[in-house]
Amino acid sequence: MTAISKSLGQVTTAGKVIIPLLLVILVVGPIATYLLATVAGPVIVDVLNSNLGIVRFVVAITGVLLFSIPAAFIIIYMELKVIAFMNLRIGPDRVGPKGAAHSVIAGLKVLTKEDFSPNAADRTIFTWAPVIVFLTSVMTFLVIPFGPGLVGAKLNIGVLYLFSVGGMSVVGLLLAGWSSFNKYSLLGGLRAAAQVVSYEIPLTLSVVGLILLAGTLSVDQLAANQAGWFTNWYVFRQPLGALIFFIAATAEANRTPFDLTEADSEIVAGFATEYSGMRFGFLFFAEYVNVFIISALMTTFFFGAWNAPFPFPHLTVALDPGSLGIMLPIAIAVGPLLVTLALAVPFWLIRTKAPAWQALLAGFALANLLAFGAIGLLTYISWDWVAGLIWFFVKSFMFVFVFVWMRGTFPRVRVDQLMGFAWKWLLPASLLNLFVTALAIIVVKSL
Amino acid sequence: MSTVPGMGLLRGMGLTLTRFFQPKATIKWPEQQADVAPRFRGRLQLLYDENGSLKCETCFQCAQACPVECIDMGGMDTRGRFHVHWGPAETYGERREESALRRSGRPVADEAFTRFAALDPTADDEILAAHDDDPREMLAILEEVQGVYGYLPVAALKHIARTTGAWYATVYGTATSYRHFRFEPPSVATAAPAGQGQKVAEAGYLAALDSALRFDGKAAR
Amino acid sequence: MTTPTGLGHHASEDDPRIMLDGQIGQYEQVPPYPPRTEREAEFYSLRDGEMFLNMGPQHPSTHGVLRVVLKINGENVVDLDPVLGYLHRGVEKLCENSDYHHVISQIDPLEYVSSLFMEWAPVMSFEQLLDVKVPRRAEYIRVLTGELLRVASHVLFQGWMALDLGGLAPILYSFIERDEIVEMLAALTGQRMLFNYFRIGGVNGDLNHEFMSRLGDWMSRALVQHEANIGLLNENEIFVRRMRDIGRLDGETAKRMGVSGPNIRAAGVPFDVRRAHPYSVYPELEFDIPVRGTGPAGGDSLDRYLLRLDEVRESIRIIDQCLHNMPDGPVMARLPRLMRPRPGRAWAAVESPRGLFGTYVISDGTDQPFRMKIHDPSFVHLQLVGMLMKNNLIADTMAVMASLDPVMGGIDK
């Protein structure tokens, strides 16, 4: 007894709280788990089963909300770093490894700032406008298929939903610009309205050809249609549509070279001029979430969604560890050691002067690499959705990179040229694309 | 512009992509220091030698060259005498304002006269007139002025500088480079032990400074 | 009592910080005084659908602290009124109350982008007053450093031009290019920005090894690097379309308005101080005067932009010749220590990167100039702003203003 009290005396104050808590958890935890599994479990499962639609929706919403913030952080960091590299700068390098936590800290900073609003602003609208902008961006995520089966809501009118919700963000921008009581904001808001409404038309029309081809409005079905070789991707059947969609989506997301709504050299910061604190954070996040969304849509509509560029052999790896019997624990205990030693031997043989521990370390690292590679390959092969997720993100972030790249290169177009381009070039081109597609379908069907 | 629309845009993107992989022009300051040319002047500061004492020899050349008259000097010499002319660094701000006023052409009260006992300049004027206000005859002028007062009061030096057009720094520099010029009345005991004299002199200087700046004994501690 | 606006604190009529209910939603009357001139009365009366947009002095693209009051109708600029004086330092008066040597460092920060030219003109006029013969080596060094700085200035202009049109990359590339030149000059003069290098009767120091090695290094790749950087913009459709056909200036108007430098050469008038009123050793050097916009309509913003790029190539040619023809000898003339020129007057002008920069000095026989008038090209060019920007879009005002390349330090003096 004295030994315990003596050792407890040496523990710090925090430890004195944590150790009893740990003991309590050790005792209570198993009991609670047992009770949950035997008594409450079936009831909960029943309730959830009978309301599967609602459960799915809540889970999807939570997942999308949780996903949007880190996605925005990654894209912000990517933008900072990529543009810096293109400008021959080092970019952020202080917070986290290579400055990776920079955008997270910037987000925290935005949270701690004063939520200022101008005296003459329309307070209610001024407060809610960023929320509208952010929500419309996030809601678009719901119908994007991240992988086979990994879609928030399997709407059969998914494409329609995408455009209607995406078009709503202009309301938020317009409200933000109008309610700020600032001429620069007003100009920014009006520019946003004109720009987004104009580009909405070619954006939608460019996809209509695609819909004619696919015969469905479900985004999930569009993704599934592009399985197999990469020649099945719609970009090869709708190249003009893809190009129009790319340009119009850039304008829709207010990205360079169409970032007139926040043209800093003309109208200071556009609709965001008077915003500060987390309200500005919402506008800022929404912009980067939009970048991810247009990249994801590019991928989904034209670049094969979550499909790999080559038909993937569906192997079912017949691993049955149980059949090894007594050998299984022995293999688990001895295997890693043997592999490490086996991999360390060549290092030790090549560089005899190096101390043995260095060779061992190298062998250990190599063994880990092999193990993780094997596990990764196994998951990739075994589960469709893991492969789909990987391909989806690889493709999406390639497009994000393209958007960032464009921002690092281009100047901004003028407002009349922007509108002229939409109405004089993109709209006729998208109509042409639509007619040619329709004609081709009729010809092919009549043959 | 190229004939194919969009080619210029693509070429620009190609350039930025090549820049993406090139070595970077910025450095990780302060881990890496910039490559500075040996002649780079940078910030004004007094240098110390390897023994830790100031390299400044009080030659006043910097003060003479400064176009905005922001450099000035004060302190003890090796014999424990103090020759402070404008004051310590704390008062540079005021000095600069005064300099700006003087350059604007308006009359400015010269604090040197109020702090160091203003004196009647008629004797100086006669000597200067005899020498035609010529700064090249500075040595003779200074000797004659010392002959009148018994030493070289700061007010007299200021007056000489103003009349001849020579820089005060030059006048003071001339005076200090000859051993036979004195800057205190002959009655002041200069033979006191060096440290002791320094303390007395410093206390006197600080008292004069305090009263001049009305800091009530809080200055220069 | 809290106000209905929900400010959450006590509003009182005495407190000027708090906007009362009646005042909310009202803009302040501009200008706060009754109009003083006919032009002001005309400008500050709004027609239907018009409003004022106050651009600057803290606006991102006004090249310093210029304030422009725009009268806009939607996106169209109906009229505008530049307001100057936010950077006034009284440089002329400072110079008049400084020693002749000190004028060099007083005038140095006048126009901070090309400060060697700010030293050159007064130094030349003082040399005329004092009747000093400058050694040929010193003249060559002046031309060499001056042309280097002209390259740096035009390169920086290119970056600013792109930044005002929304491009992020060119400004950084420009600064990298400018930084090499500026570091090179720092190795020669000791400072990166305000060089304080020219002296009455010569230059401060002879060329040193550090400078020469950096210069040789830079010369070997200057043109290649420059061509690569301008390739980013010159072929860019967005950039060219935005610059073309805006802010047209024809030669007659340019002459009438007293325009000089690249701006008048881009309006089709081959006027260059280096050729028209030769100074220093420019008559001995071979270089062309690039001219653009020779048509009756004159040159637009794109012409002004491209002309500066042509000048960079010519400047590199001049630098090359300077290095090959550099004579031996002293870099300073023998001068009296105390400078008191005889009473008289002198005018000297140089071709700065922005145009004709000149100083007119009157000496009264003392060691300070009695009067010193500074002619700055940016100030002259700014009077074009009202003419060129009118009836354009807001976005075009930036393109026009940037293509005139004003530096507010020189304008406000």
Could you walk me through the main structural features you see in this protein, from its secondary elements to its overall organization?
The complex is a heterotrimer of chains A (447), B (221) and C (413). Chain A is mostly helical and 447 residues long. Chain A is 73% helix and 0% strand. Chain A folds into 3 domains: 14-50, no CATH class; 53-311 and 385-446, no CATH class; 321-382, no CATH class. Chain A contains 15 helices and no strands. In chain A, helix 5 packs parallel to helix 11 (277-302) and helix 9 runs antiparallel to helix 11. Chain A is globular. Chain B is built from 9 helices and no strands. In chain B, helix 5 runs antiparallel to helix 6 and helix 7 (154-164) packs across helix 8. The radius of gyration of chain B is 27 Å and the shape is elongated. Chain B has a domain at 61-213: NADH-quinone oxidoreductase subunit E (Arc Repressor Mutant, subunit A, Orthogonal Bundle). In chain C, 45% of the residues lie in helices and 12% in strands. Chain C has helices at residues 38-43, 91-96, 100-107, 115-130, 136-164, 169-189, 209-234, 237-243, 251-256, 262-265, 273-276, 301-325, 377-382, 385-389, 394-404, 408-412; strands at residues 51-55, 67-73, 76-83, 198-199, 202-203, 344-352, 355-363, 369-375. Mean pLDDT of chain C is 84; it is low at 1-11. Chain A binds chain C through residues 83, 86-89, 119-120, 123, 181, 183-184, 187, 256-257, 259-260, 263-268, 407-417, and chain C through 5-7, 19, 24-25, 51, 53-54, 59-61, 75, 162-169, 172-173, 176, 232-233, 236, 238-239, 241-242, 393-396, 398.
